[in-house]
Amino acid sequence: MDLRDYIKSIPDYPRDGIVFKDITPLFLDPTALRTAVDQMSSYADNLGVDLVVSAEARGFMLGGAVAAQIGAGFIPARKPGKLPREVNSVEYVLEYGVDALEVHKDALAGGARVLVHDDLLATGGTARALCELVEQAGAHVAGCGFIVELAFLGGRERIAPHDVHSLIVYEDE
Fold this sequence. Notes:
The chain is an alpha/beta fold. It has helices at 24-28, 30-46, 58-70, 125-136, 155-158; strands at residues 8-11, 19-22, 51-55, 73-77, 87-94, 97-104, 113-121, 140-150, 164-170. The strands form three sheets. The chain has a five-stranded parallel sheet, sandwiched between helices. A two-stranded antiparallel sheet has the order 1-2. Strands 5-6 form a two-stranded antiparallel sheet. The protein is globular, with a radius of gyration of 15 Å. The two termini are 22 Å apart.
């Protein structure tokens, strides 16, 4: 099954000049969804992952499913002010400003093997922030998994030296 068939390109969204890669059609098809979860779970399982950490909101959709399938814990990385207890926080640069992600301080422990997961790897800002949150806690980034990678934006280089696995890679716009 070619998962690329379930990704829709939306021109000029969210602003002119950007071609948005919409993964929601993949979620609508049960076979495509199962294939994506199975492929990402296989990658994570081979890494011996203890935990999966994903950024809100689209990263949550498969991150939790992968964690459940491989018998790992799941850590939601949220925008500031969304978690009720003490947090670790990392700021990162977006194309249009600065944002931050937070995880509960007690969510990550030293020595844990963690899969960093998100729906899309573009410039690598969000993924780099997730890696920093994991490393701040003394845990180990075992690998980084994505549904879609926009290789032409160089995100893989930004999160080096971490291993990167993407189910679908677009080499150009």
